[in-house]
Amino acid sequence: QVQLQESGPGLVKPSETLSLTCSVSGGSFTTWYWSWIRQPPGKGLEWIGYVHSSGSTDYNPSLKSRVIISLDTSKSQFSLRLYSTTAADTAVYFCARDRGWAAEWGQGVLVTVSS
Amino acid sequence: DIQLTQSPSSLPASVGDRVTITCRASQDISNYLAWYQQKPGKAPRALIYGASSLQSGVPSKFGGSGSGTDFTLTISSLQPEDFAIYYCQQYHTYPLTFGGGTRVEVK
Fold first, then answer.
1. Which residues of A touch B101 (CB under 8 A)?
2. Measuring CA to CA, which residue among A62, A50, A55, A60 is closest to residue A96?
């Protein structure tokens, strides 16, 4: 049973970069798509983007200019970087194994963008 | 982007009720639809994929149907642990998109 765990700072200053890492254990890291999804407090879900184990990526056009998702297969980790943050980026950030649908999720980490 | 519209947004119900939630897509997505359950402070849990296939470990009281643009999630007999928010999600076309959610609450 694959397990995912997000890690990273819970507070980011406006205009700075949000950086999160997802550690994957208990299953194969290769051949899968790995996604980031976020949820502002009290609101719905927004897909941010994915990285495939080959290194290919795709992003939500609404965030594409500010986001990079990368992977480190040697550590079974993938990462999110979101640049030029504002208060609107305050959300719980989830990582997930993406089969088109997100079959497995991390527990999520709240990131607050505030000075 | 493909828009998903869920109805109702709020559904008061009682234990033992049969509950139906609908999800309508803005264009044909074949059967590339998933359903999730989310409880407060928790990550969503996948219930259904491929519009009607039950995710491993999910009880058979959950059922999905539909294709094209109209889909439903049914809970055959609502139990206390089923009060939650339910989301649909399409994976026919990137970017992946979610419906706005349906809160199943105590009547």
1. 44
2. A50
pLDDT per residue over A14-25, tens digit each? 999 999 999 999
Looking at the partner chain, which of A62, A101, A106 has a beta carbon nearest the beta carbon of B89?
Answer: A101
A16: which DSSP letter? S
Q: Taking CB atoms and an 8 Å limit, are A100 and B34 in contact across chains?
A: yes
DSSP string, B1-63: ---EEEE-SEEEE-TT--EEEEEEESS--TT-EEEEEE-TTS--EEEEETTTEEPTT--TTEE
| Contact assignment for A105 to B43 by CB distance below 8 Å | yes
Asked whether residue A31 carries a pLDDT value surpassing 90, the answer given is no
> Which of A47, A98, A108 has the CB atom closest to B43's CB atom?
A108
> In this predicted model, what pLDDT tens digit does every residue of A88-108 receive, in sequence order?
999 999 999 998 999 999 999
Distance from CA of B55 to the nearest CA of A (A): 8
Going by C-alpha positions, the residue among A88, A73, A91 that lies closest to residue A20 is A91
B14-73 pLDDT, tens digit per residue, is 999 999 999 999 999 999 999 999 999 999 999 999 999 999 999 999 999 999 999 999
